[in-house]
Amino acid sequence: MAQVHTILDEPPDAGSLYAAARAPITATNDDGIPYSFEVTDVDSDARFEGKVSALANPFAVQLSWSLLLTGDALGAGFYVRGKIYRNNAGNLELIAEAVATQSDAAAPIQFGGGAKIVTLNYVCAQGVSCTGDSDAGTDAGAGADAGAGADAGADAGADGGPDAGLSNDAGSDGGGSEADAGDGAGSDGGVDAGPDAGPDAGIAYRPAMPRRIAAGNNVTCAFNSDGGAYCWGSNNFTALGYGDAGSDQSSPGTVVDTTGTGQLGDVLAIAAGNHGCARRDAGTLVCWGRGTYGELGIDAGSSRSSPVTVLNESSTGSLLGVVAFETGDNHTCAIVSGGGVRCWGWGTGGVLGENQAGPDRFTPVVVVSEDGGGELMNAVSIALGSFHTCVVQDGGTALCWGDNSSGQCGNLAPGSGLQFPSVVQNISGIAVVAGGYRHTCALIADGGAVYCFGQGTQGQIGHGYFLDTAIPTAVVGLSNAITVTAGSAHSCALIADGTVRCWGANANGELGDGMFDGGDKMNTPVTVVWDAGDPLSGVVGITAGANHTCAELDAGGFVCWGINSSGQCGIGNTASPQRHPFPVVGFP
C-alpha cells in the first residue's frame, strides 16, 4: 500500500473557483499540509485551468490542472500535469514528471513516483471522497500509464490541444489590442506549464494575451489579483477609462466603474487601444473610450470616458456568457458560451462577419458560418487585427474574414474584403492566432511552430524576406513557442523556456533587442534582452500593441519596451523609445 497525499480535502464549488480566478487561495489541509490553489484561466463552457502547489516533507508538488464545471458541479474530462520532488535536506530532487488524464468525474487523478501517490481531490465529483490509501505499483510511477509514458503523453497531448479549452483569447491587433478569457484573460491556458515542459510533454498553449496585461494603440491596461483595472498611456478618445478627458498617463491609473465613482473591479480579462474593454466575472463585458463606429456596443455611436456595459443583439439587456473577446482598431468581437461569435462596430469590408460589407453596428451581430449561412460555432480562440478578424475552432482550424488586401486572411488569394469566415489554408492543428495591422500569425499546437501570412514589408512574417505572402509560412528557426502576439508591423512569440523572440518593425524599439538605429527591421526572430544583454526570462505572458510590447513575469510585475511617447510603457516618464524591457512602475 502506498502513501497517499491529498492536496485538497474538499472539491471546490463554482464560487470558490471564480474566487481563485481573482486571487490564489492559500490554506492548510486536514493533514496539516499548506497548499496554494490558483485558477489561471476560465475557458468556454466553464472549463477552468490552474495550478496547485504544496510542500510536505519529504515531497514537494507542483501541478497544473484543467477541469470542467457544469452548473455548480464538476463535469468529466480532467487532465493534470506537473512534477513531484523529494525534499532532501532542503534540496528538491525530481522523482517524477508526469501527465495524467481522467474522464470519470467520480474518481481521483493520481500519479507519482515509486511509493508516492499524489491524489488531486478537487477533481472528484461533488460529495465523492478521494482520500485513503492506494496501490502504487508500476502504474503509479513515472511509467507508461501515470507518468510521461506513451499513454499519458498521448492523452495529455490531446487534452492539451484546442479541444481542451486552450484559450479563448487571442493576439493583438495593429493598433488594437488583445484579450482572453480569464487570465484570467489572461488570459493563459496552462500558464505555469510552459517553462517546465515542451510541447511533447502535453503543455497547454497560452493565448497571445497574457493573464493580466494588454497592449494596444499607445495604451496599456492590466488588472491586479483583486480584479481591479488600471490603464496608462494615451488618453486620446478617453481610452484610459479614468472618467474624464484628462492628459496622458505614464504610470498605471485607476479605471473607474460604470458609475464613474469607484474602481472597475471583478475583472477577469482586459483589452486596450483606442477603446478598452474588460470581461467581468459575471460573464458580462464593459467597454470605454472611442465609440464613434459603435465599438462600445451600447446602441449609440458616441465615446465614453467611463465603462459602459455591452448590450445583447436585441438591445434588451446585457450581452451574457462572454468567455473571450478582443478589440480591433474600430470593432470588437466576443466568443459566447457554446462557441458562437458576436461582433460590433466598424462594418466596412465585412470585418463583422455577417455576410455583408457594412454598415457599422452599434450592438452585437451574429457571425455567420463559413458558407455564409448559419451561425459560426465551436470557436475557442479569437484574434482581431486592425480591420480583419480570425478565430480558431475546437478542431484546430482557423477562419478569418474582413480586410484581405495583403492576404492576411490566409486564403491564398489577397484581394477585397471577405464578408464571412474563410478557412486559413495549408495549416492545421492551430492552437491560437494573433492579428496585426495587415498580417496574422498562427501557433501550431504540435511542436510550437509559428506560421504568419499577410503584409511582410517590415519583416513581420518572419520568413526571411521583406515581402507579403498570402500563404501561411513558417517563421524561420522558431519552435517550442507557447503563445504568439502581433502588433502593427511586428510579431513576438513566448518560448517554452520563458524567453521571448520578436521579429518585424523595430524603428521604435518594439523588438526589445537593443538594436534600434532609427529604421531597423528584422525578417527573422531576435531574442528580447535586458539592457545588460542577458535574455529576458521567466516570462509567462506577452502582448503587442501597435508599436510597443509588454510581458508579464512569473516573479510578478510587468515589463514593457518600444515606443513610449505617450507613457504607454508605464515607466513613469515618456522617454522614447525604450529599446530594452523596463519595469512598469507603481502597479498595485
Q: How would you describe what is shown here?
A:
Strands 2, 3, 4, 5, 6, 7 and 8 form a seven-stranded antiparallel beta sheet that branches. The chain has a four-stranded antiparallel beta sheet with strand order 11-12-13-14, with no helix packed on it. A four-stranded antiparallel beta sheet has the order 15-16-17-18, with no helix packed on it. The chain is globular and about 55 Å long. With 588 residues, it is mainly beta. The chain starts with a strand and ends in a 5-residue tail after the last strand. The longest helix has 10 residues, at 150-159. The protein has two helices and 38 strands. The model is unreliable at 1-15, 68-82 and 95-210 (pLDDT under 50). A hairpin with a 5-residue loop joins strand 28 and strand 29 (450-454). The protein is 3% helix and 40% strand.
How much strand content do the residues show?
35-45%
> Compute the gyration radius: what is it?
22 Å
| Classification by helices and strands | mainly beta
Overall mean pLDDT stands at: 75
Largest sheet: 7 strands, antiparallel
Separation of termini? Answer: 48 Å
Helix content: under 10%
Uncertain runs are: 1-15, 68-82, 95-210
The total count of helices amounts to: 2
The number of E-state strands comes to 38
The general outline is globular
